[in-house]
């Protein structure tokens, strides 16, 4: 599947037909996937920083304690560590309801992304790098479920929040460019601009709600 095909405005960042707008190809290949790339990079960096910081603390602890005492301390620490897979234990009914809604919205966003990709494919327009969004959704859901592997990914909640805001913002740019292009564009095709505009608008709304819930949920 080509990144972009049969898109009259061209491949570059600025449309050949409409000099005042960005091309849909640039949005689908660069701008929207950029959120995922930055999110994954930041997640890896935060995980690495935690590992480095923990290694330094462990080395200093070993220097201060003899091996037996340190081992006993580590065993107790591991034994009392909370489960990675039970985030609902952290709150009451409101928390559980918010968490369920959070996961349902991620599933809904999965379905909306699939819908957009399938319709772009059926219209022979190319799907760009939009499938990268699936990776971001999976990682964000995993970090929420495991509380960032119980803190091994530093500031994971802020990373998730940044992801939702970034995706909402970039898709909003996509909406703005489609409005400038004209809602009657690609009329009669298998994926008219007006239909894509509706789909992307729903996705922006879901990302906005995810960002709101992310700020409301505790670890």
TrEMBL record:
Keywords: Membrane, Transmembrane, Transmembrane helix
Transmembrane segments: 21-49, 95-117, 123-143
Species assigned in the record: Heterodermia speciosa
Protein name: Uncharacterized protein
Keyword Transmembrane applies: yes
